[in-house]
Amino acid sequence: MTSRLLPLLACIPLLAMPLLAQEPSAVEIQDLSTRNADFAARLYRAIASTTDDNVLLSPFTVSLGLAALMSGADGSTREQLLQGLSLNALDYLRIPELFQSVRDSMAQSGFVNQGIGILPRQQFKVDSTYRDIVQTKYGGNVQGLDYSDGAAKDTINQFFSTYTREQVKEVVSAIDPQTQMMLITAVFFQGQFALTFNTSFTQDERFYVNKYKIAMVPMMFRSDKYYLAYDRSLKLGVLKLPMTGGAAMLVLLPDEDVDYTSIDEEITGERFQGWLKQLKRTRLEVQLPRFILEQSYSLQKVLPGLGISEVFQDSADFSGIGGETGLRLSEVVHKAAIIVDETSSTGNAHAPNIFASLPPRLTVNRPFLFLIYHQATSSILFMGRVIDPTKK
Protein backbone atom coordinates (compact mmCIF):
# COMPACT_ATOMS: atom_id res chain seq x y z
CA MET A 1 0.00 0.00 0.00
CA THR A 2 2.80 2.41 0.97
CA SER A 3 4.66 1.78 -2.26
CA ARG A 4 1.55 2.72 -4.23
CA LEU A 5 1.22 6.02 -2.39
CA LEU A 6 4.75 7.22 -3.08
CA PRO A 7 4.21 8.10 -6.76
CA LEU A 8 1.02 9.92 -5.83
CA LEU A 9 2.71 11.95 -3.12
CA ALA A 10 5.42 12.96 -5.55
CA CYS A 11 2.74 14.48 -7.78
CA ILE A 12 1.10 16.67 -5.13
CA PRO A 13 1.27 20.20 -6.57
CA LEU A 14 2.94 23.10 -4.83
CA LEU A 15 -0.46 24.68 -4.20
CA ALA A 16 -1.44 21.90 -1.83
CA MET A 17 1.80 21.52 0.08
CA PRO A 18 1.90 24.60 2.35
CA LEU A 19 -1.04 23.21 4.31
CA LEU A 20 1.25 20.37 5.46
CA ALA A 21 4.27 22.55 6.23
CA GLN A 22 5.84 22.93 9.65
CA GLU A 23 6.88 26.19 11.27
CA PRO A 24 10.21 27.33 9.74
CA SER A 25 13.26 27.12 11.97
CA ALA A 26 15.60 30.03 12.71
CA VAL A 27 18.25 28.35 10.54
CA GLU A 28 15.84 28.20 7.59
CA ILE A 29 14.87 31.85 8.01
CA GLN A 30 18.52 32.92 8.11
CA ASP A 31 19.24 30.86 5.01
CA LEU A 32 16.36 32.55 3.17
CA SER A 33 17.58 36.00 4.24
CA THR A 34 21.10 35.23 3.03
CA ARG A 35 19.78 34.16 -0.35
CA ASN A 36 17.46 37.16 -0.54
CA ALA A 37 20.45 39.41 0.19
CA ASP A 38 22.31 37.89 -2.75
CA PHE A 39 19.36 38.58 -5.06
CA ALA A 40 19.01 42.09 -3.59
CA ALA A 41 22.62 42.94 -4.41
CA ARG A 42 22.38 41.57 -7.95
CA LEU A 43 19.14 43.44 -8.59
CA TYR A 44 20.60 46.67 -7.21
CA ARG A 45 23.74 46.38 -9.34
CA ALA A 46 21.65 45.73 -12.45
CA ILE A 47 19.47 48.80 -11.88
CA ALA A 48 22.22 51.14 -10.65
CA SER A 49 24.35 50.40 -13.71
CA THR A 50 21.66 51.86 -15.99
CA THR A 51 21.47 55.35 -14.45
CA ASP A 52 23.56 58.15 -12.97
CA ASP A 53 20.65 59.41 -10.89
CA ASN A 54 19.22 58.52 -7.50
CA VAL A 55 18.23 54.87 -7.04
CA LEU A 56 15.60 53.32 -4.78
CA LEU A 57 14.17 49.83 -4.73
CA SER A 58 12.75 47.30 -2.28
CA PRO A 59 14.46 43.98 -3.04
CA PHE A 60 12.35 42.13 -0.47
CA THR A 61 9.10 43.30 -2.07
CA VAL A 62 10.35 42.28 -5.51
CA SER A 63 11.42 38.88 -4.12
CA LEU A 64 7.97 38.43 -2.59
CA GLY A 65 6.28 39.15 -5.89
CA LEU A 66 8.51 36.86 -7.94
CA ALA A 67 8.30 34.08 -5.34
CA ALA A 68 4.50 34.36 -5.42
CA LEU A 69 4.69 34.03 -9.20
CA MET A 70 6.98 31.02 -8.77
CA SER A 71 4.30 29.30 -6.69
CA GLY A 72 2.11 29.25 -9.80
CA ALA A 73 4.86 28.18 -12.20
CA ASP A 74 6.02 24.72 -13.21
CA GLY A 75 8.81 23.02 -15.11
CA SER A 76 11.70 25.09 -16.43
CA THR A 77 9.81 28.33 -15.74
CA ARG A 78 9.78 27.56 -12.04
CA GLU A 79 13.40 26.39 -12.06
CA GLN A 80 14.51 29.60 -13.75
CA LEU A 81 12.68 31.73 -11.18
CA LEU A 82 14.27 29.77 -8.34
CA GLN A 83 17.72 30.16 -9.89
CA GLY A 84 17.26 33.86 -10.58
CA LEU A 85 16.05 34.51 -7.03
CA SER A 86 19.02 32.57 -5.58
CA LEU A 87 16.51 30.14 -4.04
CA ASN A 88 17.36 27.08 -6.13
CA ALA A 89 19.12 25.30 -3.24
CA LEU A 90 15.99 25.49 -1.09
CA ASP A 91 13.12 23.02 -1.06
CA TYR A 92 10.65 24.97 -3.19
CA LEU A 93 7.76 23.43 -1.28
CA ARG A 94 9.00 25.26 1.84
CA ILE A 95 9.39 28.67 0.22
CA PRO A 96 5.82 29.94 0.80
CA GLU A 97 6.06 29.13 4.52
CA LEU A 98 9.48 30.76 4.79
CA PHE A 99 8.30 34.02 3.25
CA GLN A 100 5.18 34.02 5.40
CA SER A 101 7.30 33.62 8.53
CA VAL A 102 9.49 36.59 7.58
CA ARG A 103 6.42 38.65 6.72
CA ASP A 104 4.81 37.81 10.05
CA SER A 105 7.95 38.95 11.86
CA MET A 106 7.94 42.25 9.96
CA ALA A 107 4.20 42.76 10.44
CA GLN A 108 4.72 43.08 14.18
CA SER A 109 6.73 46.21 13.44
CA GLY A 110 4.22 47.69 11.01
CA PHE A 111 6.69 50.04 9.32
CA VAL A 112 6.36 48.94 5.69
CA ASN A 113 3.30 49.59 3.51
CA GLN A 114 3.43 47.47 0.38
CA GLY A 115 1.22 45.99 -2.28
CA ILE A 116 1.83 43.00 -4.55
CA GLY A 117 -0.42 42.26 -7.49
CA ILE A 118 -0.40 39.36 -9.94
CA LEU A 119 -2.80 40.50 -12.63
CA PRO A 120 -3.61 38.05 -15.46
CA ARG A 121 -5.97 38.90 -18.28
CA GLN A 122 -9.61 38.66 -17.26
CA GLN A 123 -10.35 35.69 -19.51
CA PHE A 124 -7.86 33.54 -17.58
CA LYS A 125 -9.58 31.59 -14.80
CA VAL A 126 -7.49 31.81 -11.61
CA ASP A 127 -7.42 28.80 -9.31
CA SER A 128 -8.88 29.73 -5.90
CA THR A 129 -6.19 27.74 -4.07
CA TYR A 130 -3.45 29.71 -5.79
CA ARG A 131 -5.22 32.96 -5.01
CA ASP A 132 -5.37 31.99 -1.32
CA ILE A 133 -1.67 31.07 -1.21
CA VAL A 134 -0.59 34.38 -2.73
CA GLN A 135 -2.71 36.22 -0.20
CA THR A 136 -1.81 34.25 2.95
CA LYS A 137 1.83 33.39 2.28
CA TYR A 138 3.05 36.37 0.28
CA GLY A 139 0.58 39.10 1.25
CA GLY A 140 -0.33 39.66 -2.39
CA ASN A 141 -3.45 39.72 -4.53
CA VAL A 142 -4.41 37.93 -7.72
CA GLN A 143 -7.00 39.68 -9.84
CA GLY A 144 -8.05 39.29 -13.45
CA LEU A 145 -8.18 42.51 -15.47
CA ASP A 146 -9.67 43.50 -18.79
CA TYR A 147 -6.64 45.20 -20.30
CA SER A 148 -8.62 46.39 -23.30
CA ASP A 149 -10.64 48.59 -20.96
CA GLY A 150 -9.12 52.00 -20.27
CA ALA A 151 -10.33 51.75 -16.68
CA ALA A 152 -7.75 49.01 -15.95
CA LYS A 153 -5.09 51.65 -15.34
CA ASP A 154 -7.25 53.43 -12.76
CA THR A 155 -8.07 50.14 -11.05
CA ILE A 156 -4.38 49.32 -10.66
CA ASN A 157 -3.40 52.76 -9.43
CA GLN A 158 -6.24 52.89 -6.90
CA PHE A 159 -5.33 49.45 -5.55
CA PHE A 160 -1.70 50.34 -4.92
CA SER A 161 -2.54 53.79 -3.59
CA THR A 162 -4.65 52.12 -0.91
CA TYR A 163 -1.92 49.65 0.07
CA THR A 164 0.72 52.37 0.36
CA ARG A 165 -1.36 54.85 2.39
CA GLU A 166 -1.83 56.96 -0.75
CA GLN A 167 1.90 57.64 -0.92
CA VAL A 168 2.36 55.81 -4.23
CA LYS A 169 -0.43 57.14 -6.41
CA GLU A 170 0.55 56.34 -9.99
CA VAL A 171 2.15 52.97 -10.56
CA VAL A 172 1.26 52.75 -14.24
CA SER A 173 0.62 55.60 -16.67
CA ALA A 174 -0.39 53.53 -19.70
CA ILE A 175 -1.34 49.91 -20.41
CA ASP A 176 -0.94 47.84 -23.56
CA PRO A 177 -4.37 46.33 -24.35
CA GLN A 178 -2.59 43.14 -25.49
CA THR A 179 -1.14 42.56 -22.00
CA GLN A 180 -1.25 38.92 -20.87
CA MET A 181 -0.28 39.35 -17.23
CA MET A 182 1.38 41.99 -15.07
CA LEU A 183 3.33 41.64 -11.84
CA ILE A 184 3.30 44.90 -9.90
CA THR A 185 4.97 45.65 -6.59
CA ALA A 186 4.79 48.99 -4.80
CA VAL A 187 6.06 50.00 -1.38
CA PHE A 188 6.26 53.07 0.85
CA PHE A 189 8.40 53.58 3.94
CA GLN A 190 8.77 56.34 6.48
CA GLY A 191 10.56 55.02 9.51
CA GLN A 192 11.51 56.83 12.66
CA PHE A 193 15.08 56.82 13.88
CA ALA A 194 15.51 55.36 17.35
CA LEU A 195 17.97 58.20 18.00
CA THR A 196 15.85 60.99 16.57
CA PHE A 197 17.22 64.06 14.86
CA ASN A 198 15.81 67.28 16.28
CA THR A 199 14.55 69.72 13.65
CA SER A 200 15.93 72.65 15.65
CA PHE A 201 19.46 71.46 14.79
CA THR A 202 18.75 70.98 11.07
CA GLN A 203 20.32 73.62 8.85
CA ASP A 204 21.18 74.05 5.20
CA GLU A 205 24.63 72.74 4.30
CA ARG A 206 26.57 72.07 1.13
CA PHE A 207 26.20 68.70 -0.57
CA TYR A 208 28.80 67.97 -3.25
CA VAL A 209 26.80 66.24 -5.99
CA ASN A 210 29.86 66.06 -8.24
CA LYS A 211 32.94 68.13 -9.14
CA TYR A 212 30.78 70.71 -10.87
CA LYS A 213 27.62 70.90 -8.78
CA ILE A 214 26.97 71.84 -5.16
CA ALA A 215 23.45 71.67 -3.72
CA MET A 216 22.25 73.26 -0.50
CA VAL A 217 20.32 70.65 1.47
CA PRO A 218 18.70 70.43 4.93
CA MET A 219 21.35 68.61 6.96
CA MET A 220 20.15 66.84 10.12
CA PHE A 221 22.42 66.58 13.14
CA ARG A 222 22.84 64.41 16.21
CA SER A 223 25.69 63.59 18.58
CA ASP A 224 25.36 60.19 20.22
CA LYS A 225 26.74 56.66 20.36
CA TYR A 226 26.45 54.96 16.98
CA TYR A 227 27.68 51.76 15.39
CA LEU A 228 30.40 52.38 12.83
CA ALA A 229 32.67 50.30 10.59
CA TYR A 230 35.20 50.98 7.88
CA ASP A 231 35.76 48.75 4.85
CA ARG A 232 39.42 49.32 3.97
CA SER A 233 39.24 47.31 0.76
CA LEU A 234 36.56 49.66 -0.61
CA LYS A 235 37.56 52.81 1.33
CA LEU A 236 34.00 52.96 2.60
CA GLY A 237 32.52 54.15 5.88
CA VAL A 238 29.53 52.18 7.20
CA LEU A 239 27.18 53.84 9.70
CA LYS A 240 24.27 52.06 11.37
CA LEU A 241 21.24 54.16 12.30
CA PRO A 242 18.74 52.08 14.34
CA MET A 243 15.07 52.73 13.68
CA THR A 244 11.96 52.04 15.69
CA GLY A 245 10.07 48.85 14.91
CA GLY A 246 13.17 46.70 14.52
CA ALA A 247 14.57 48.18 11.31
CA ALA A 248 17.95 49.85 10.81
CA MET A 249 19.60 51.92 8.11
CA LEU A 250 23.15 51.38 6.93
CA VAL A 251 24.65 54.50 5.38
CA LEU A 252 27.55 53.67 3.05
CA LEU A 253 29.79 56.70 2.53
CA PRO A 254 32.74 56.35 0.13
CA ASP A 255 35.92 58.29 0.88
CA GLU A 256 36.17 61.62 -0.94
CA ASP A 257 38.54 60.20 -3.56
CA VAL A 258 36.34 57.18 -4.32
CA ASP A 259 33.76 57.14 -7.13
CA TYR A 260 30.42 55.78 -5.95
CA THR A 261 30.13 53.64 -9.10
CA SER A 262 33.05 51.53 -7.89
CA ILE A 263 31.07 50.81 -4.72
CA ASP A 264 27.96 49.92 -6.74
CA GLU A 265 29.91 47.23 -8.53
CA GLU A 266 31.14 45.66 -5.28
CA ILE A 267 27.83 45.43 -3.42
CA THR A 268 27.11 41.78 -2.52
CA GLY A 269 25.04 39.94 0.03
CA GLU A 270 28.24 38.61 1.57
CA ARG A 271 29.64 42.11 2.07
CA PHE A 272 26.38 43.19 3.71
CA GLN A 273 26.70 40.39 6.25
CA GLY A 274 30.36 41.28 6.77
CA TRP A 275 29.59 44.94 7.50
CA LEU A 276 27.08 43.95 10.17
CA LYS A 277 29.73 41.87 11.93
CA GLN A 278 32.33 44.67 11.83
CA LEU A 279 30.17 47.39 13.41
CA LYS A 280 31.50 48.81 16.68
CA ARG A 281 29.87 51.33 18.98
CA THR A 282 31.50 54.74 19.24
CA ARG A 283 30.55 58.29 20.12
CA LEU A 284 30.01 60.25 16.95
CA GLU A 285 28.53 63.43 15.55
CA VAL A 286 26.38 62.59 12.55
CA GLN A 287 25.21 64.95 9.82
CA LEU A 288 22.79 63.35 7.37
CA PRO A 289 20.79 65.07 4.62
CA ARG A 290 17.02 64.96 4.70
CA PHE A 291 15.70 63.36 1.51
CA ILE A 292 12.65 61.96 -0.24
CA LEU A 293 13.00 59.38 -3.00
CA GLU A 294 10.46 57.87 -5.38
CA GLN A 295 11.53 55.63 -8.22
CA SER A 296 9.79 53.31 -10.67
CA TYR A 297 11.31 50.54 -12.79
CA SER A 298 10.14 48.26 -15.59
CA LEU A 299 11.87 45.10 -14.47
CA GLN A 300 11.10 43.14 -17.63
CA LYS A 301 14.15 44.97 -18.98
CA VAL A 302 16.31 43.93 -16.02
CA LEU A 303 15.27 40.40 -15.01
CA PRO A 304 16.56 38.60 -18.14
CA GLY A 305 20.04 39.77 -17.16
CA LEU A 306 19.52 38.00 -13.83
CA GLY A 307 18.57 34.76 -15.53
CA ILE A 308 14.78 35.22 -15.45
CA SER A 309 13.57 35.31 -19.06
CA GLU A 310 11.22 32.39 -19.75
CA VAL A 311 8.40 34.08 -17.79
CA PHE A 312 8.14 36.58 -20.67
CA GLN A 313 8.06 33.96 -23.42
CA ASP A 314 5.20 31.99 -24.98
CA SER A 315 6.79 28.83 -23.56
CA ALA A 316 6.19 30.04 -19.98
CA ASP A 317 4.40 27.51 -17.80
CA PHE A 318 2.03 29.14 -15.31
CA SER A 319 -0.37 26.22 -15.16
CA GLY A 320 -0.33 26.43 -11.37
CA ILE A 321 -2.12 29.77 -11.52
CA GLY A 322 -5.17 28.35 -13.23
CA GLY A 323 -4.48 25.11 -15.03
CA GLU A 324 -4.56 26.71 -18.48
CA THR A 325 -1.65 27.17 -20.85
CA GLY A 326 -0.65 30.13 -22.95
CA LEU A 327 -0.19 32.67 -20.16
CA ARG A 328 3.02 34.67 -20.02
CA LEU A 329 4.22 37.71 -18.12
CA SER A 330 4.06 40.95 -20.10
CA GLU A 331 5.29 43.51 -17.59
CA VAL A 332 6.94 43.67 -14.17
CA VAL A 333 6.60 47.08 -12.56
CA HIS A 334 8.24 48.07 -9.29
CA LYS A 335 7.72 51.41 -7.59
CA ALA A 336 9.19 52.48 -4.25
CA ALA A 337 8.95 55.65 -2.18
CA ILE A 338 10.72 56.64 1.01
CA ILE A 339 10.90 59.64 3.32
CA VAL A 340 13.99 60.11 5.47
CA ASP A 341 13.67 63.03 7.86
CA GLU A 342 13.77 63.92 11.54
CA THR A 343 10.26 62.43 12.05
CA SER A 344 10.19 64.31 15.35
CA SER A 345 10.39 67.98 16.24
CA THR A 346 10.90 67.35 19.95
CA GLY A 347 13.51 64.61 19.98
CA ASN A 348 16.36 65.05 22.42
CA ALA A 349 19.06 65.07 19.78
CA HIS A 350 22.27 66.20 21.41
CA ALA A 351 23.83 69.47 20.31
CA PRO A 352 27.62 69.74 20.06
CA ASN A 353 29.21 69.92 23.49
CA ILE A 354 31.65 72.82 23.44
CA PHE A 355 32.81 72.14 27.02
CA ALA A 356 34.14 68.66 26.35
CA SER A 357 36.45 67.07 23.83
CA LEU A 358 34.60 66.83 20.55
CA PRO A 359 33.82 63.37 19.17
CA PRO A 360 34.59 62.55 15.54
CA ARG A 361 32.08 63.87 13.02
CA LEU A 362 30.69 61.97 10.05
CA THR A 363 29.22 64.40 7.54
CA VAL A 364 27.32 62.76 4.71
CA ASN A 365 27.80 65.59 2.21
CA ARG A 366 28.53 63.67 -0.99
CA PRO A 367 26.88 60.79 -2.91
CA PHE A 368 26.20 57.79 -0.69
CA LEU A 369 24.44 54.47 -0.68
CA PHE A 370 22.08 53.09 1.93
CA LEU A 371 20.32 49.90 2.96
CA ILE A 372 17.36 49.53 5.29
CA TYR A 373 17.02 46.08 6.78
CA HIS A 374 14.89 44.18 9.28
CA GLN A 375 17.27 43.35 12.10
CA ALA A 376 15.53 40.21 13.39
CA THR A 377 15.72 38.45 10.02
CA SER A 378 18.51 40.45 8.27
CA SER A 379 16.10 40.96 5.36
CA ILE A 380 17.02 43.89 3.11
CA LEU A 381 13.89 46.00 2.77
CA PHE A 382 15.36 48.86 0.72
CA MET A 383 18.52 49.65 -1.18
CA GLY A 384 19.26 53.06 -2.57
CA ARG A 385 21.77 55.58 -3.81
CA VAL A 386 21.52 59.30 -3.16
CA ILE A 387 23.37 61.38 -5.73
CA ASP A 388 21.37 64.57 -5.19
CA PRO A 389 19.13 64.81 -2.08
CA THR A 390 17.16 67.68 -3.63
CA LYS A 391 15.76 65.37 -6.30
CA LYS A 392 13.42 62.40 -5.99
TrEMBL record:
One of its GO terms (molecular function) is serine-type endopeptidase inhibitor activity. GO terms for biological process: blood coagulation. CDD domains: serpinA10_PZI. Keywords: Signal. Residues 41-389 form the Serpin domain. It comes from Salmo trutta. This is Serpin peptidase inhibitor, clade A (alpha-1 antiproteinase, antitrypsin), member 10a. The keyword Signal applies. Belongs to the serpin family. The lineage of its organism: Eukaryota, Metazoa, Chordata, Craniata, Vertebrata. InterPro entries: PZI_serpin_dom, Serpin_CS, Serpin_dom, Serpin_fam, Serpin_sf, Serpin_sf_1, Serpin_sf_2. Residues 1-21 form the signal peptide. GO terms for cellular component: extracellular space.
